């Protein structure tokens, strides 16, 4: 914890003067770095969706990615666990390392990568199973069968997602009986059950009401003590409230990447300022 | 709006609506009446002939002793081959096409061919079965040869039904599974198949009931229409209900028309039972995502 705290202050001056071309950390920062992105490009067919992305993502931080629709922010977050490859006709070039290891390396099975990286989607997507079976899904596919171990994981994960007290008496009930906000916290619990290192969140509150949104935001503050969180959001206020660092994407490029407080109070790029003050987007 | 024009047209529009409603209602009722007439005619003819003995007797030259035992049991034997073979082949193909296959021209080619197979006349499948199973593989006019032929016949129907069931499983459920590090097979086995199974079973049962009612391919295979014993294995020869009925309707004696009617009632009862099971499964497991 202490180490990351000091790094935060150390990194800040580096990113203050960042321009569009070089918002990455200097070398020698490998410790505490979760993702290192260098010159990442992605095409959907002919459409160049990500252009020369340079981005370094740090441990135990909430990193927000903001930008208007179609700017590539969801594409980027889905590249981090290679889910983007489910889209047909995707082509990727460039370097993207998770904990120093190239995620596109053929000897690095995508299943192994995704075991380290949890993901929460835009729309709550629980399985049509019981609450218990939803949480136990991840541990089970990784081979855990022991009932007692599973019980412990389910309780721990539900507590971690601040859902335990609401559902502890009806673990065998169908997950579709939960409210939208509860379903989304169930999905967070489900991804905690595989004990990930990073949690990717793709607009996790866009389908939720304000109260459920608030609960998820509070939860994110709790989770960042243990996990590195990368969150895509449409909502600039949300990014300002919950994140430590913010990257602003526009037309497939990273325009600015800085401490959240810095980016929102004193943006270095005119386009960032125009976006956060609501002049477009 | 021109209020006068509106009120002038109003009556015409209402009459038009009433006339069309009447036409659609008539169309619906007509189908129902035809079915009722057919059913009542058959049932009337069958009354007095359909009893326990009819189900328990072998066919006979004497109409009052004739029964359906060999056809009924033969149809069950046929299903025992068709159900597993066509379900495994059909669902396997559907899983491959929907989950594994790359979306390229080759896949599209296979897809088109399977869809076209559902429209191929059943007699063509009979010729295929005669060539491959009866002659080439030397299975003769056996339960196995007929079962494999019928499996080929209903296979495309099961593929299409299973594909639709798989496609109805929301993509976001697969994504949730993949995102946790599940392999493709784990995702298929634990997420896709449980969600798609009711749809698959419904399709499979409807396909099976088609196989039970089908006659033409078995005529081509040369399956006998009159057999007074039961098969003791899949390589024995046998007969099925529709063939038995076909045999009776071709007889000159008036009484055999009643025997045939009784046979039709049994066959219809059998098919209605199967279709009801399909409807029950669909209703019981109908889950909206």
UniProtKB/TrEMBL annotation, chain B:
Signal peptide: none annotated. InterPro entries: MetI-like, MetI-like_sf, Phosphate_PstA. SUPFAM superfamilies: MetI-like (SSF161098). It is found in: Cell membrane. It comes from Geobacillus thermodenitrificans (strain NG80-2). It is a multi-pass membrane protein. Belongs to the binding-protein-dependent transport system permease family. CysTW subfamily. GO terms for biological process: phosphate ion transmembrane transport. GO terms for molecular function: phosphate transmembrane transporter activity. The keyword Electron transport does not apply. One of its GO terms (cellular component) is plasma membrane. Residues 72-277 form the ABC transmembrane type-1 domain. PANTHER family: PHOSPHATE TRANSPORT SYSTEM PERMEASE PROTEIN PSTA, PHOSPHATE TRANSPORT SYSTEM PERMEASE PROTEIN PSTA-RELATED. This is Phosphate transport system permease protein PstA. The chain crosses the membrane at residues 20-50, 70-97, 117-137, 143-166, 259-281. Keywords: Cell membrane, Membrane, Transmembrane, Transmembrane helix, Transport. NCBIfam families: 3a0107s02c. The keyword Ion transport does not apply.
